[in-house]
């Protein structure tokens, strides 16, 4: 993203997300002619507050002017902002004073229609100035999502009814063992009455859902997915009995971070084209998938719940369409009456460092959504154990922010060695389908005395040493793509890469790029064992045959999970933890298979599913009570409170608790 450089000084001013927006409002200047180049043209408060720089978009979304000279050359670049209108959103009107005072259906519809009508002058002005309207909000926020040249923002501020302009929040897409760990099966099978989420509707705001997968009651064949056009709804394909609704707000090629693809092309089909949303939805509420007596994919936490797929990402990239989806979730039939709003929302997405203040549009929207009775669950982020780095939207007051912990198990395909007597797990990179049986060659043994087995070059490897072999390669020194391509160039038939010393010994999802050679990743502990079987025959895979392996202790905070508290006021975030390391759930496009993924994206849907079980068991509980039940019954996750919150979720204890302890709303 472009940065502001001020030529009259020798240092760079870079925006810090720790700082709340300043109260300063400079006088408005004409955008027709550029100002001079003196430092005084930049508000003194800006110079003093921002120590390392900020983007053009960030500056213009916070200040009326004057426009610094350093901005002038980039003022014609398009930016995405949310223009906030003066009147309260429908949700705020309905929850006036926090009492939840009911509005009749006709009153809701009339009020929402009035808000949209009042936005008409703004919409017309945006279009007249060459901009695009990407969303109009009335239900959870009163505002308009706009894509427009930066120099036009000050003019939008002057339109009657406009309250403020905010930078559009932008996000990225930060079971057979984990579901029993949190006690969900005990809730399903409880006597005299169990709960599986039946009657509860979960909206998954993500990359969509592969509703053709057997985990969601689909045909369960790869051909069903391959034959489904993600831009249209084929007759009889969607909605389904499990995925009862949804919408694609983005389109295949949408990417908010790419100026050439930042305009969404929505369509009615929320079919997943990335895989992330499918995995998340399967954890929250997927069905068990079996092949005879063999479980291929375990049931999600609330397998009786219904799912709604709200697709805000394209096939790759980032998004600023989250409020579009929140509006839909609060009024699925679009009639202006919010009585059909969903019960639980899962948001396994985020941006680093949270937000600068409680006025952020998504924070406002999520708090209003919760005030009307919908539970919101978000992932804390994957930026590691650094204070205050928990992301947005997880920092919203009403959101249940979820950190990631270990399960003590991983469900993965296997490497068979020692004449088939022993086995080790691997995380697939490029698939081993069908299984591959070949001689294992430790690259460290054949690449020369001075090399380290990393295979970042091919010159030192003995001629023919890897021909037809499975290459055992140490991580580090170069990319996975380079290592795998080098193995292929030397004639290998497959590759297994293990962690080097000095890094956290965890499974990771390799980015293989252009490499096509079958390849997988394993832990250093297993890699060192396999080194002892150099020049012996091993069998890799197939990826579809899975084994549950022990993997350290349960309830240990994941190395990647983001640490709180909230940046602008040190309020407790995250509130809870859940399993998020090597979680096995449905794999997009596979029909019946699964895949392991790690991240707080996988932790959040465990809590979402638990919230669905609570909503079924206690339909009268509001989101505050649901959060209280989850937090007060959590298991100590072995980490500090700013890292793991109250602890690891225990669905059974939360559903059947007899005591609720609510926290101070200014702290929790």
From TrEMBL:
Query: Which positions fall inside the Peptidase S8/S53 domain?
Result: 197-640
Recall the GO molecular function terms of this protein's record. Answer: serine-type endopeptidase activity
List, for all copies, the residue spans of the domain called PA: 453-523
Q: Which family does it belong to?
A: Belongs to the peptidase S8 family.
UniProt-annotated catalytic positions = 206, 276, 601
Q: Name one Pfam family in it.
A: Peptidase_S8
- Report the protein name in the record: Peptidase S8
Write the record's keywords in alphabetical order, separated by commas.
Cell wall, Hydrolase, Protease, Secreted, Serine protease, Signal
The record ties this protein, via SUPFAM superfamilies, to: PA domain (SSF52025), Subtilisin-like (SSF52743)
The record's listing under InterPro entries reads: PA_dom_sf (IPR046450), PA_domain (IPR003137), Peptidase_S8/S53_dom (IPR000209), Peptidase_S8/S53_dom_sf (IPR036852), Peptidase_S8_Asp-AS (IPR023827), Peptidase_S8_His-AS (IPR022398), Peptidase_S8_Ser-AS (IPR023828), Peptidase_S8_subtilisin-like (IPR050131)
| Record flagged with keyword Cytoplasm | no
List this protein's GO terms for biological process: proteolysis
């Amino acid at each position: 993203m472009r940065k502001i450089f001020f030529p009259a000084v020798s240092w760079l001013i870079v925006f810090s997300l720790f700082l709340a927006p300043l109260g300063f409002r400079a006088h408005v200047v004409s955008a027709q002619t550029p100002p001079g180049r003196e430092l005084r043209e930049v508000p003194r408060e800006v110079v003093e507050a921002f120590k390392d720089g900020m983007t053009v978009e960030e500056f213009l979304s916070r200040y009326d002017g004057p426009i610094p000279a350093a901005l002038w050359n980039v003022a014609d670049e398009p930016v995405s902002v949310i223009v906030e209108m003066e009147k309260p959103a429908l949700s705020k009107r309905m929850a006036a004073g926090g009492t939840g005072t009911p509005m009749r259906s006709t009153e809701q519809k009339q009020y929402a229609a009035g808000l949209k009508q009042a936005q008409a002058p703004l919409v017309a002005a945006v279009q007249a100035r060459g901009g695009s309207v990407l969303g109009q909000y009335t239900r959870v926020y009163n505002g308009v999502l706009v894509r427009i040249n930066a120099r036009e923002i000050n003019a939008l501020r002057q339109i009657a009814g406009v309250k403020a302009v905010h930078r559009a929040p932008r996000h990225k897409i930060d079971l057979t063992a984990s579901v029993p760990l949190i006690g969900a099966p005990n809730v399903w099978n409880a006597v005299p009455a169990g709960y599986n989420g039946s009657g509860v509707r979960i909206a998954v705001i993500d990359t969509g859902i592969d509703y053709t997968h057997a985990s969601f009651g689909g045909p369960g064949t790869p051909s069903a997915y391959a034959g489904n056009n993600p831009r249209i709804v084929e007759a009889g394909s969607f909605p389904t009995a499990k995925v009862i609704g949804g919408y694609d707000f983005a389109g295949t090629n949408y990417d908010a971070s790419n100026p050439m693809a930042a305009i969404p092309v929505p369509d009615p089909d929320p079919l997943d084209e990335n895989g992330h949303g499918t995995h998340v939805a399967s954890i929250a509420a997927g069905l068990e998938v079996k092949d005879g007596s063999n479980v291929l994919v375990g049931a999600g936490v609330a397998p009786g719940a219904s799912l709604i797929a709200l697709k805000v990402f394209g096939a790759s990239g980032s998004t600023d369409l989250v409020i579009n989806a929140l509006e839909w979730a609060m009024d699925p039939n679009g009639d202006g009456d919010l009585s059909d709003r969903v019960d639980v929302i899962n948001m396994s997405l985020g941006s680093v460092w949270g937000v600068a203040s409680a006025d952020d549009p998504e924070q406002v929207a999520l708090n209003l959504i919760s005030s009307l009775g919908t539970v919101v669950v978000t992932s804390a982020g994957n930026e590691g154990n650094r204070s205050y780095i928990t992301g947005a939207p997880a920092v919203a007051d009403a959101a249940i922010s979820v950190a990631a912990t270990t399960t003590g198990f991983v469900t993965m395909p296997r490497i068979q060695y020692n004449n088939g007597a022993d086995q080790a797990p691997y995380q697939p990179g490029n698939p081993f389908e069908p299984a591959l049986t070949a001689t294992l060659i430790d690259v460290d043994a054949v690449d020369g005395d001075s090399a380290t087995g990393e295979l970042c070059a091919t010159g030192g490897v003995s001629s023919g040493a890897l021909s037809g072999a499975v290459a055992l390669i140490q991580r580090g020194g170069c990319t996975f793509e380079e290592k795998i391509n080098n193995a292929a160039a030397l004639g290998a038939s497959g590759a297994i890469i293990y962690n080097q010393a000095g890094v956290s010994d965890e499974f990771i999802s390799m980015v293989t790029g252009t490499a096509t050679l079958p390849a997988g990743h394993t832990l250093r502990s297993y890699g060192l064992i396999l080194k002892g079987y150099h020049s012996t025959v091993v069998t890799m895979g197939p990826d579809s045959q899975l084994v549950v392996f022990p993997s350290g202790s349960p309830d240990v905070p994941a190395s990647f999970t983001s640490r709180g508290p909230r940046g602008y006021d040190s309020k407790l975030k995250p509130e809870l933890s859940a399993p998020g390391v090597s979680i096995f759930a449905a794999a997009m496009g596979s029909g019946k298979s699964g895949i392991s993924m790690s991240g707080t994206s996988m932790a959040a849907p465990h809590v979402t599913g638990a919230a669905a079980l609570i909503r079924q068991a206690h339909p009268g509980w509001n989101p505050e009570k649901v959060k209280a039940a989850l937090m007060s019954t959590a298991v100590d996750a072995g980490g500090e409170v700013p890292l793991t919150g109250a602890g690891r979720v225990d669905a059974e204890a939360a559903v059947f608790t007899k005591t609720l302890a609510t926290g101070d709303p200014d702290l929790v």
